[in-house]
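User: Hey, quick favor. My workstation is busy. Could you predict this chain's structure for me?
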Amino acid sequence: MSPKTSQSGGKAGGGTGGVRGLLTPARVAVGALALLALIFIFENTRTTKIRLLIPEVSMPLWMALLGTAVIGALCGAYFMRRRR
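Assistant: No problem, here it is.
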């Protein structure tokens, strides 16, 4: 029997279950960065003028920052999915 197929005590499959498998250093770092980004976004609440090509609109700065962050996250997720 090879070491990969033997199940000598412990969990089957040898995976790390529970909280350890859920809280990897990369996930903690991404969560911390996301929290900092949200704090930055919601601290900037003044109304500002935004120009996209020709039209100029007035809107709260937090909405523009949040919209930009969402678009960036979607683009990042799309390109990471295509990479696999």
